[in-house]
Write a structure and sequence with these properties.
The chain has 274 residues and is α+β, with helices and mostly antiparallel strands. The protein has helices at 4-21, 23-53, 58-83, 87-105, 108-123, 162-167, 193-205, 242-259, and strands at 131-134, 137-144, 148-153, 156-161, 171-172, 179-187, 217-223, 228-236, 270-272. It folds into three domains: 4-105, no CATH class; 126-175, SH3 type barrels; 179-272, Alpha-Beta Plaits (2-Layer Sandwich). The strands form two sheets. Strands 4-3-2-1-5 form a five-stranded antiparallel β-sheet.
Length: 274
């Protein structure tokens, strides 16, 4: 009859026997893992240098790096399975179960975002640092990942799923050669329209940030009961400066009107974006 101590030694002896029998395989697997740990950083640096030489964006280089490293790890995993003779068991049972579980938990939206992320990284509709608008949100791109794009608004960070950029329209203000802006104002019918145009265009010309080409224009917009409404149309390059530019234009118009004795029938200027 075996004692409790002998019962304890039996599984230990069995494990030791298995380890001894598979010791060459364990050593080989350990060497492969050590070599992989050494190779991965080298591969990462090589891809980064090749990407820099090819002038690829940083986010594209990062995505390529991740894909290559995951591929290497998968190959190493299969090699180790083959060393221990487990490849048929894993390929026939465990891997399908794991794969099915992952697909079961991964939503269609996530897969769509991954595909959209790859498209964005290679088609480059925007890059890190660009100012974009989607719907009512205007924000600066801070990071582009495989699943989402991180942007910064005045009140904080937004994480926009990449698929949203393929489904919805958006504006990239940093890729537009000129951004159209408008300001409306009113003047009495007794004031000559040519005089209005001359005064306002001179006021706009003195504002830094307004493009000379296309040149600003004045159009008659609406006929009101006691005044005529005009629309100033001008172009800017840097959308980030829009507030300062519009403020300078409004201030110059008010100053020019006062100097020429022209009254603004409305209590304030109305700024609109086209």
């Amino acid at each position: 009859m075996q004692t409790a101590f002998e019962n304890l030694l039996d599984p230990i002896a069995a494990i030791s026997s298995v380890i001894i029998q598979n010791l060459p395989n364990l050593i080989l697997a350990f060497i492969i893992l050590i070599a992989t740990a050494i190779i991965l950083p080298i591969v990462k640096r090589s891809i980064r240098r090749a990407g820099d030489r090819s002038h690829l964006p940083r986010d594209v280089i990062s995505t390529i790096n991740k894909l290559v490293q995951w591929t290497i790890l998968l190959v190493v995993f299969i090699i180790i399975l083959n060393i221990f003779g487990l490849q048929q068991f894993w390929l026939a049972t465990v891997i399908p179960i794991i794969f099915g579980t992952v697909i079961g938990f991964a939503s269609i939206a996530t897969i769509g975002n991954m595909i959209a992320g790859i498209i964005i990284m290679f088609t480059r509709p925007f890059k890190i640092g660009d100012l974009i608008q989607m719907g009512e949100d205007i924000a600066e791109v801070k990071e582009i990942t495989i699943i989402y794009t991180k942007v910064e608004k005045g009140e904080g960070l937004l994480y926009i799923p990449n698929a949203d950029f393929l489904r919805n329209k958006f504006i990239n203000y940093d890729q537009k050669p000129a951004i159209i802006r408008t300001i409306t104002f009113t003047a009495g019918y007794e004031i000559d329209t040519t005089m209005i145009e001359s005064i306002v265009l001179k006021a706009v010309k003195d504002v830094e940030g307004v493009l000379e080409n296309p040149s600003p224009v004045i159009r008659t917009d609406l006929f009101q009961d006691f005044a005529q409404q005009y629309k100033l149309i001008y172009n800017i390059k840097d959308f980030r400066q829009r507030g300062r530019i519009e403020g300078d234009i409004r201030r110059n118009i008010v100053k020019a009107f006062k100097e020429n004795g022209i009254d603004l029938p409305t209590s304030h200027l109305v700024s609109l974006t086209q």
